[in-house]
Amino acid sequence: MEISFIRVWAFPAGITIKTMEKMHVHMALKIKNRHRLKEREAKDIISSLKTWFGADFFDSKVTVDVGTLEEFSVVFVNDSIDFFFYNNQIVLTLQGVNRYQPKTHGVVVDMGAISFITKGADVMGPGITDVDPGIQKDDIVWVCDEKHHKPFAVGIALMTGEEMKMKKPGKAVKTLHYVGDRLWILTH
Length: 188
Fold this sequence. Notes:
This protein is α+β, with helices and mostly antiparallel strands. The chain contains 5 helices and 13 strands.
């Protein structure tokens, strides 16, 4: 939760708004219906991830829990919120992308696109500078900037990687989760 304060100073000439400061307030997270997955359920999640990203993220020996964090259904791996569900599909959180560093399904955008995407905009084709050509429509993808290659959004591909590479006009990725959104704030 973020609370903003505005300092106001009164001068003989009138009232002047001088500055605005932000203070972060830390709150305890309320997780509902948290429960441990059975080994078979955890293996199903591992299998789904391997299908999407072609790699193993973790083995079935880790503790995997699911629960509800406000409006989000989330997956905990060793108490870290690394995944969430969107339309019954498992999706990496940004925390999960940074932790597991997937080698496929990446979309690189120019620096000008970042401010729009981190306000909830979808990724547009002309802003893409590089992309995994193996991406298929409806795949889960992660988005990073071209300068630092730092992931800052996760979404669903609305076109193939080849179409994105051609900078086809229109929406290329539906943004599901990004730096600064509600889920990111709750998990940081």
